[in-house]
Amino acid sequence: MKVVILIALLVVGAWASSTEEPSESSESSTPASPSQIAFSPFLIYDDRFALGTFAKVNWFQAQATCAANGYTLASINSEYDQQRIRNFFYTRGHSQLHLLNQPIWTSGTDLADTNNWVWFGNGRSFTYRNFQNDSPTYSNGSCLGVNGITSLWLNENCSNLHYFLCERRCAEGGDYYR
């Protein structure tokens, strides 16, 4: 629970300061704030996932935009979840594959404890992993994106601008969709 609270404080602090410039590998345009982003999901799948391809935002803004609309950034807790997300990208996003051939933000992060990856959306440590090259490249960043074409995970600088994948939250006390 302390990790979840720490991560939440980090997200709020990073959002408030937002002095960090995106790295050269990201888009150079200034990202919009969640209040400026109209949540009109590109696609919804199985009433669980919503793919936000209407704005490229940093990881913190992606989480804030999802949360402002009853979602959280998606967690990939198992191979089953990974397959469902891949099916979602392939069946619903096939006409937008050019948008998916890059990292798409998920809730994965090691911001609270370097090298200890957790899903911000549910506070769980990674039990299933699908990193490109079998492990994260720690010099790259502390936020996790999934490539929409290959389904491989990439750790990225949290200030990079990417599209994002939200997951619907369940009622308090309930678990996320399975």
Automatic annotation (TrEMBL):
SUPFAM superfamilies: C-type lectin-like. This is GK21333. It comes from Drosophila willistoni (Fruit fly). Residues 58-167 form the C-type lectin domain. The lineage of its organism: Eukaryota, Metazoa, Ecdysozoa, Arthropoda, Hexapoda. Pfam families: Lectin_C. Residues 1-16 form the signal peptide. Gene3D superfamilies: Mannose-Binding Protein A, subunit A. It comes from the Eukaryota. Keywords: Disulfide bond, Signal.
